[in-house]
Amino acid sequence: MKKRVxxxxxxxxxxxxxxxNAQTADSLLVQANSAYNQGLYDSAINFYNRVLDKKVxxxxxxxxxxxxxxxxxxxxHAILYYEKxxxxxxxxxxxxxxxxVANSMIVDKIETVPKLFFQxxxxxxxxxxxxxxxxxILLVSWTLLVLFFGIFALSRSRRNKKAGFFxxxxxxxLTVASYGLASQKYHHAVLHNEAIVFTPTITVKSSPTQNxxxxxxxxxxxxxxILDKVDNWVKIKISNGSIGWIPQQSVExx
Length: 254
Prior knowledge:
The protein has helices at 2-37, 41-53, 59-71, 75-88, 93-103, 117-126, 131-154, 158-190; strands at 194-197, 201-205, 214-219, 223-230, 233-237, 243-247, 251-253. The protein is α+β, with helices and mostly antiparallel strands. The protein has 3 domains: 2-103, Tetratricopeptide repeat domain (Serine Threonine Protein Phosphatase 5, Tetratricopeptide repeat, Alpha Horseshoe), CATH 1.25.40.10; 117-190; 194-253, Roll (SH3 type barrels). The strands form 2 sheets. It has a 5-stranded antiparallel β-sheet with strand order 6-5-4-1-7. A two-stranded antiparallel sheet has the order 2-3. Helix 2 runs antiparallel to helix 3. The radius of gyration is 24 Å and the shape is globular. The termini are far apart.
């Protein structure tokens, strides 16, 4: 009996902490939005960051934080938080628009390597839904796959067997595709393999040493993909396919 009381007390304590934390986060958000509407962008940023410190995140929160930095004229910070918002809500038109505006204001205008047709198709479907939506589609397609193959295996009718086989095959392909898209979306959301450059001008090196050969120059606000890390250096790839090394402190991970 004593143990049960202890567990109940602990559970009530945890629920109380969560409730207080949620109330505090809501209060901070109200203050942040109020400060933003009054043009007090430094205060708004401070309140938004305090919400993030409480392990609360959302696309809307990152979007508002990006807007506050943009209003301050800090374009690299704005791009960073718009990108964070886009990871959580890739199909949000407001996020994509503001990110495009911010990107138009940076120095580097790097052309993207043309994609093959199947990569374009995959990207189209990839951007249609988030990880949770693709996970739901995966479960539904798997259920229908089992159903139609069950019809194929158990039905005595030639017509039903044929329909069950081809519909089962269709949902098999959909299951495999939705699994790939859901897992890719999930890993993209949790992995920090992209970053924004925060050094005004940085020379990309051929190896992770200051004395290495200079390859090319990039500027603040540029988005890079992180391929590797060695000591205080990161190996990066930019959208035109160029690869090199820069100091880790010159970027902020998305």
